[in-house]
Amino acid sequence: MTPPTRRPPAPETLALLEARRSVAAAGLAAPGPDADQARRLLAIAARVPDHAMLAPWRFIVIEGAARSEIGARLSEAYRAANPEMVPEKREKFAAIMGRLFPAPLALVVVSRPVVGATIPAFEQELSAGAVCMNLLTGAAAMGFDAIWVTGWAATHKAALAILGVSEGERVAGILHIGTATDAPADRPRPDVAALTTHWSPPG
Ligand SMILES: Cc1cc2nc3c(=O)[nH]c(=O)nc-3n(C[C@H](O)[C@H](O)[C@H](O)COP(=O)(O)O)c2cc1C
Questions:
Q1: Does the CB atom of residue 149 touch ligand 1 within 6 A?
Q2: Which of 43, 112, 151, 186 could form an S-S bond across to 169 if both were Cys, CB 3.0 to 4.6 Å?
Q3: What is the CA(79)–ligand 1 centre distance, in A?
């Protein structure tokens, strides 16, 4: 019997995983992925563990002129949804909604668990999370910066209608992808040892 062939180590991938960090959407500018890179990213995104192959997620691409168009609609929807809010505060947040897509490319990952499937909805939602993570890693491997966000635009009913997210679907993440305008700082990372135990028999 021939011995199994070991997959060659990929130190560059390890270094990328060890150093990847997010960049706030406001700090993401052109260049972003071109059409081929965007297609490749989506293929990478879909290459995630998916119990029973349900593909319980889908994508919405927001790019080019659609970014300001959707921003204007979200801004208006935010005002309409918050009539009681102090006007200055409402305008501040409405303006943020208007500029919500500063990066050249945004990919919305929509989680859509299959109802009645034998696979629990939780597992299907985890698969949508894996899709988001693959997008972050894939973008980093292409030399781009990115961030995974949610917030009002990903959760409020009016915003979901604008995005085109239906009943029974939820936004797992909005992935903003581009190039950092400033050298991004890292954040403190968790103490992995403090979060890790080794199982031993109880008693
Ligand atoms: C499901 C999910 C939703 C998030 N939503 C937001 C958000 O709306 N706004 C935000 O600033 N960060 C949000 N974050 C956090 C950022 O994606 C990111 O974790 C944080 O900026 C630190 O980045 P890094 O650990 O990738 O470097 C979210 C993270 C997850 C997993």
A1: yes
A2: 112
A3: 25
